[in-house]
Amino acid sequence: MDKLMMYFEYPFVRYALIVGVLISLCSSLLGVTLVLKRFSFIGDGLSHVAFGAIAIASVTGVSNEMIVVLPVTVISAVLLLNSSGKAKIRGDAAIAMISVGALAFGYLLMNVFSASSNLSGDVCTTLFGSTSILTLNPTDVWMCIVLSVIVIAIFIVFYNKIFAVTFDENFAKAVGTKSDLYNLMIAIIIAVIIVLAMNLVGSLLISALVIFPALSAMRLFKSFKSVTVFSAIFSVSCALVGMVVSILGGTPVGSTIVAVDVFAFAVCYLVGRITGRGN
Amino acid sequence: MSLIKAENLSAGYDSDTIIEGINFTVNEGDYLYIVGENGSGKTTLMKTILGLLPPLSGEIVFGDGLNSKEIGYLPQHTPVQKDFPASVWEIVLSGCQSRCGIRPFYNKKEKAIANENIRKMGMTDLKNRCYRELSGGQQQRVLLARALCATGKLILLDEPVAGLDPMVTLDMYRLISDLNKSGITVIMISHDVAAAAKYASHILHIGDMVFFGTNEEYRQSKIGKYFLMQGEMLGEISNDGKKEAK
Fold first, then answer.
1. Could A160 and B51 be called an inter-chain contact, meaning their C-beta atoms sit closer than 8 Å?
2. Cβ(B229)–Cβ(B219) under 8 Å?
3. What element of type H or E holds B50?
4. Which of A183, B215, B234, B243 is most solvent-facing, going by the fewest CB within 10 Å?
């Protein structure tokens, strides 16, 4: 405990905790919608796109990666979520295609043009989350806070519409709700969350932050509201526990958080089974 | 002035015309059945009525202050809904989404409307239950309550008894019939010609042959006789089958 208190003295630890909590909160909000729309893997696909974009940014020497990464990811998200209705290559296949394609090109670029001497270290960092969560500067933290607040505010304001569009798009369209617009909005929010979350857990593990809270909550709760609230609490608690464990134990931040998520999901699953709530 | 009047309507996707030359009118208080075999274009016609597809030619005119956004629509189930965690209350309330417009939250009046429709469907006790745990018939009642939240005038039902067992089907038909008697205009998409002849006030038959008229006219028409007789024969065959099985 003393050790923990000592760590809290350092600003970078406090930054990491603030960012961790915000990111886990944001990523859990739309998890329910994504899981239900059968887009569980979209986090994975988009984060690989973001990985590719980071590779491009670092190769071309753009100083602030965000300038490249955010727009590229947003565009991919819009294409993926919007095309699913009519495109020839559908949902899961399109995600898989874009995901591995971007991953391959990203690594290729980094490998061929890299200026860094520690290539595998760089790649590993981007894929599995880095210690960079512990090296955040105040600008990063503020940016994260601003984006998170925007995401959370949009989610709350459009909560009822998101529910309507997720539950029954045909009905929503028939009564005049602009479901295409809301789908677009969901896509953009997802992309922003993914880019934010890459700092925390890296691009390979992002899906975990999106789907585990939603799946765990769905084992225990039965209304959309309670599922959403519980997944937010679940996600934030797991992120906090994961970060504290990783600070104390010196384990990698991203994988520790995901490990805690998996463990907590197992607990929820068992509780659901025993109480008969999750059918 | 009729609620809906379709004149020489053709519907389909872009260059692909699925149905053409459709004429019908729906007046207040009507109970219109749209019947036809699978692939005859029932769903396409329905989407055109709802304004989800633009008509390829001809037109649909809405009268009596109705517009296509005020049609209470009961769609078929989607796979997403099978494991969707949502309470009856949340779903019925979402029927008020068009009343809400761009306002983010539902107000008291809309909540009262939702409550009233839940009561009408006899679902008050199940208000906080999870949708996916309900029986097929109960789920249809929830969706019907939601459709009623979107409208006070006209509901459009897409195969509302698909997958329900005979008792529940009968129940559902009665419920819809009662709604119609209480003054709500009903358009029902179905392939159950026998039920159409029993409940409908008007019938629109689409497919290779097109017919529109009152129930009585349909039963006297060639096409109506043909399909009703076929239905009876099929019924007898399946009844015979059951007898033999016993």
1. no
2. no
3. helix B42-50
4. B243
Per residue in A144-189, pLDDT (tens digit) is 889 899 999 999 999 998 888 888 888 888 888 888 888 888 888 8
- Is B100 in contact with A170 (Cβ distance < 8 A)? no
Check if the beta carbon of residue B186 is closer than 8 Å to that of residue B31: yes
Query: What pTM value is reported for the model?
Result: 0.83
Closest to B213 in 3D by CA, of B1, B30, B12, B11: B30
Please indicate whether, in this complex, the C-beta atoms of A223 and B89 are within 8 angstroms of each other: yes
Tell me whether residues B94 and A160 touch, CB distance under 8 A.
yes
Q: Give me the CATH number covering residue A67.
A: 1.10.3470.10
Express each pLDDT in A195-211 by its tens digit.
887 766 777 778 888 88
pLDDT under 50 in chain B at which residues? 241-246
Delineate the domains of chain B, giving CATH numbers in brackets.
1-66+153-216 (3.40.50.300), 78-152 (no CATH)
Closest-CA residue of A relative to B150 is: A175
Poorest-confidence range of A73-87, A101-115, B89-103?
A73-87
- In the DSSP assignment, the letter for residue B87 is B
Q: Can you read off the two tokens belonging to residue B48? A: 């055109």
Q: Are B70 and B150 in contact (CB under 8 A)?
A: yes
Burial of A44 (0-12, 13-18, 19+ CB in 10 A): buried
Residue contact A168–B90, C-beta within 8 A: no
- Which one of A84, A175, A180, A181 makes the best mutation probe of the B interface by having the most chain B beta carbons within 10 Å? A175
The number of folded domains in chain A is 1
User: Is the CB of A177 less than 8 angstroms away from the CB of B51?
Assistant: no
Q: Token pair of B210, please?
A: 């097109």
Is-contact A243 A20, C-beta < 8 A? yes
Please name the residue ranges forming H helices in chain A. 2-8, 11-29, 31-36, 42-60, 65-83, 91-113, 119-128, 138-157, 159-167, 169-174, 179-201, 206-220, 224-249, 253-275
- Interface pTM, i.e. ipTM: 0.82
Q: Widest CA span of chain B, in angstroms? A: 61
Convert the pLDDT of each residue in B86-125 to its tens digit: 899 999 998 888 777 777 888 888 888 888 888 888 888 8
Reduced to 3 states, what is the DSSP secondary structure of residue B7?
Answer: strand
Residues of chain A neighbouring B51 (CB-CB closer than 8 A):
174
Phi-psi region of B122 (alpha: psi -120 to 50; beta: other; left: phi over 0): left
Domain that holds residue A189: 2-275
Nearest to A164 among B97, B128, B133 (CB): B97
